[in-house]
Amino acid sequence: MGLGLLVGFLATSCLAFNSTSSPSGPVSDPQTKTLSAQSRYWRCDVTLKAECEPPGGCRPLEPDNWIVLDFVEQRYQRCDSSGCTAYEMQTLEDMFTYIRLKDRHDVFMEIGLANMFVDVATAGISTYNSFGTCRKMPIEGKR
Fold this sequence. Notes:
Layout: H1 2-19, E1 21-22, E2 25-26, H2 35-38, E3 41-53, E4 57-61, E5 66-70, E6 75-80, E7 83-93, E8 97-101, E9 104-111, E10 116-123, E11 126-137
Antiparallel strand pairs: 1-2, 3-4, 3-5, 3-11, 5-6, 6-7, 7-8, 8-9, 9-10, 10-11
């Protein structure tokens, strides 16, 4: 179940790389802009979530949260029905958007082709993996 989405994400990401590369390097596509150039605010809805740890492997979790990104304020917000917790983020935008939290090195996020994302948080040797899709938010980061 989770593996299928992960394989699809990786395959799609590889196709994006191959379709925009040449022997001399990346080919510029005028239609492609970074996420921050497209919109200040993005909402990333979790559609698949799993906890993974040895020796038992992974078990599915109920997707009960979403993430709001503010590229101007460099803010990452993890939200659920109780509200949002904000963190300062650092980004690297190239073919993909890479996000890490400034004071929480146990969390990272990657947004790729078709705005599909993976968000990983670690606790010891356990990981909490969230997958889904991000979309532009027109109004000031409101959930």
